[in-house]
Amino acid sequence: ISSDDGFQICAESIEDAWKSLTDKVQEARSNARLKQLSFAGVNGLRMLGILHDAVVFLIEQLSGAKHCRNYKFRFHKPEEANEPPLNPHGSARAEVHLRKSAFDMFNFLASKHRQPPEYNPNDEEEEEVQLKSARRATSMDLPMPMRFRHLKKTSKEAVGVYRSPIHGRGLFCKRNIDAGEMVIEYAGNVIRSIQTDKREKYYDSKGIGCYMFRIDDSEVVDATMHGNAARFINHSCEPNCYSRVINIDGQKHIVIFAMRKIYRGEELTYDYKFPIEDASNKLPCNCGAKKCRKFLN
């Protein structure tokens, strides 16, 4: 440590050099009969200015600063260059692909970007003239076989699958539907009742939702893999639709009918009519109806 007036101190460390300087200062003040100064909390690094924030900011950017392993960086924290562990398979491409979530083949139907038609019961039917002939084909004025023959075409124009506030996906009305009108057929593979348990276990093992509807004591419609939009219709304790088994050309079909007039944008629901079970097997109901039974079973 040196000054312009020729004062100079040499020492083996910064601390020793500044201690010698402070001792000289105290000695000079004592000779001048001045009050001694307090150097408590003052060290060599602080006196040199190395601990100043601006100086530290610059020093941490010096080349090779990252090699100071024991120093805790304040402003420029070096990136940790931890090498990843060796892959036991030799390459990531050789590993078996594992899904982070369960596979859902209908996940796109519940996308927030697919909005259902706007519900407005006060809106008059503007397109009734254009859809009048199509409506009449499924109305109550025609025989049941004729109504069923036109159902496949008209159901695509009448209903659609969108995100449901009740559960997952739901069936929504795309145009006003009159009371008693055929809405959609619950389509799928017709299987025997004894096969339902086996298929349900298989679907559960694959993480696939099961959609089945009983026709009678011996036959069940399995819509899980070969069904239509009717499989997504949700339960409600105050439904606006009901299901009915009809016989067309000697074959039984499950058809959903409108219980009352259903307006555009309204979700279609019907009562699942599950048998009553004990408290341990109860399924909660989220229909939100005023007379909700709180449980499906």
From TrEMBL:
GO cellular component: nucleus
Pfam family, one: SET
Keywords recorded for this protein, A-Z: Chromatin regulator, Methyltransferase, S-adenosyl-L-methionine, Transcription, Transcription regulation, Transferase
Domain Post-SET positions: 281-297
Single GO biological process annotation from the record: methylation
Domain called SET: residue spans: 157-273
Chain segments annotated as coiled-coil in the UniProt record: none
Keyword Cytoplasm in record: no
Keyword Transcription regulation: yes
A Gene Ontology molecular function term of the record: methyltransferase activity
Cited PANTHER family: HISTONE-LYSINE N-METHYLTRANSFERASE 2A, HISTONE-LYSINE-N-METHYLTRANSFERASE 2 KMT2 FAMILY MEMBER
Protein name in UniProt: Histone-lysine N-methyltransferase HRX-like protein
